[in-house]
Amino acid sequence: MFISRINKTAATLGVSLMLAISAAPAAADDLDVLGQFLQQNFPDEKDPLGAFLVENPNTQISEQAAIAGPLLSSQAALIMNNRTGEILYQKNINRVMPIASISKLMAAMVVLDGKQNMNEQVTITESEIDRLKGTSSRLSIGTTLTRRELLHLGLMSSENRAIHALGRTYPGGISAFVSAMNAKAASLGMSNTRFYEPTGLDSRNVSTASDLSKLVSAASDYPVIRRDSVSNSGSVYTSTGRQQNYKNSNALVREGSWNIDLQKTGYIRESGRSMVVKARINNQPITIVLLNSPSSSTRVNDARQIESWVNQQRRS
Fold first, then answer.
1. What gap in Å lies between CA 122 and CA 45, rounded to an integer?
2. In a 3-state reduction of DSSP, which class is residue 284?
3. Helix or strand or coil: residue 303?
4. Which helix (H) or strand (E) holds 152?
5. Is the pLDDT of residue 41 over 90?
6. Which position has the higher pLDDT, 41 or 102?
7. In this structure, what are the phi and psi dihedrals at residue 158, rounded to the nearest 5 degrees?
């Protein structure tokens, strides 16, 4: 009887929701239509679903999640099955937003496409000092590392000076490097994406959750990017003579409980906490894009909510 009541209320919701969506404006694909519909219409004791939730408060959250999707703090989100291309969940996936250090995935592809010598030594100069946000770095001026080492630090630990140095030493310098990033985005069909510099410190580096799913797919074709982005730690010696130890910027990687193929986190004030992850959840290849979450903890909690929700869908 319990399951029967859920099925009846879900069926009622389905009919009502279709009517609500059909009445939505043309720009509804950029709105969380389902979230708005539930908020405006439920719970209501005169409605079957509302009555069910009122009568069964302990199941309210789980039943809502089963029907409507995971309850996320991120302002935009996308969950996609990479095997089928099916979008399992979406929230504001076409909203253009700053993407911060997720930009480094595109920078990494441009570096590797450039076919430069990855064992060549590159020296950190004053050009790498962040004069836009004033962020610090453990790569002191004069530190010399190989391109391979710089790319590793940039992808794993989001080291801004490492990525900037790779762009500066690209043929034609930073301007040519950024042009190559934008050309690559265009070739991937990322029509709402624009880059102004390689690190993501500039808030004008923007994209959408939909475009970033294409970025994740393309970056996954590079074994070096997959390996470096999920690397757990690394260390280098700087010009000060000190050994600097780095860890992965993603708590999901550091914890080691997820089966992650590729990831990148991002943060500047304008972008909030963002993350892209390609992982295997319940033996399914899943891409997750989370943009503008309020904090590091809510970003990780959103990912865990998604993991639980995907597992729940597989069992149902």
1. 67
2. strand
3. helix
4. helix 147-156
5. no
6. 102
7. 55, 40
Measured CA to CA, the distance from residue 122 to residue 127 in angstroms comes to 13
The residues assigned a catalytic role are 101, 104, 158
pLDDT of residue 66 exceeding 60, the answer is no
Q: How many residues does the chain have?
A: 316
Positive or negative, the CA dihedral 276, 277, 278, 283 is: negative
What CATH number was assigned to the domain covering residues 98-254?
Answer: 3.40.710.10
C-alpha–C-alpha distance, residues 67 and 57, integer Å: 16
d(CA 311, CA 258): 13
Domain boundaries, the chain: 2-68, 98-254
Whether the per-residue pLDDT at 5 is higher than 50: the answer is no
Nearest to 113 by CA among 189, 198, 170: 170
| 40, pLDDT greater than 80 | no
CB contact at 8 A, 207 and 102: yes
| CB atoms closer than 10 angstroms to residue 27 | 8
Helices 48-55 and 2-22 sit at what angle, rounded to 10 degrees?
140
* pLDDT class of 2 with cuts at 50, 70, 90: very low
Q: Which tokens is 83 given?
A: 């095997």
pLDDT confidence of residue 313:
80
Which SS3 state, helix, strand or coil, does residue 95 take? coil
List the beta bridge partners of residue 265.
275
The pLDDT, as a whole number, for residue 306 is 95
C-alpha span between 139 and 152 (Å, rounded): 13
Which residue(s) pair with 291 in the sheet?
76
Q: Is the pLDDT of residue 4 over 70?
A: no
Measured distance CA(13)–CA(34) in Å, rounded: 10
Beta partners for residue 297, in sequence order = none
Residue with tokens 């409980």: 257
Q: Is the pLDDT of residue 120 over 50?
A: yes
